[in-house]
Amino acid sequence: MKKSIFKASFEESQGLVTQGKFVLTAGITRNNNPVHMGIFNRLFTLVIIGYFAFGLVLYGLLFAMPEQIGRVGEVRLISVKAAELIHQIGTFLIPPSAFFYTLTFIFMTLFCLPKKNLKVQSYFYFSFYFPFLTCAVIALFYFLSAFAFNRFGFSGFLLQLVAGLGFIIAILYQGYRDARRRLYNEPRWLGGL
């Protein structure tokens, strides 16, 4: 009978958090731990790096670029059809982009508030990474779709999209199997999926 990764005992689950170089600290040492940063360092990090650098770059890539790229006479480096595709995808993805962009700024603002312990702090940081990386993936999707469309046409673009989603699912499944193997001390299987 195969065991689920969610039915492991406490002793079995300790194997996940006590292996490797990030033992129960989430990779944060005292020198780069924001719990030990002063309020001015936190505000500097939040305002200068967070709002201005990441905020402006993400806004430009998520909202301004897809809207402006489809203008007639402005397309020089890619084909007009690829620019239209970026514009259409950008228009379609405005609601999720706005949602994750707003979530990024909410969690970025929560970064400035002091946390009591490392566990609570880790929850805040990992919750910040998800919307930020989602915004980055959406912005990267615009460029990759245009490159695939320019090179292989619409059918090649769809084929690459399906293959990419298949690879993502395979990677997630492999991570699930690796976690289950480490939980229950199963031998490592060297075959494919």
TrEMBL record:
Membrane-spanning intervals of the chain: 43-65, 85-111, 123-148, 154-173
Alphabetical UniProt keywords: Membrane, Transmembrane, Transmembrane helix
Name of this chain's protein: Beta-carotene 15,15'-monooxygenase
UniProt lineage: Bacteria, Bacillati, Bacillota, Bacilli, Lactobacillales
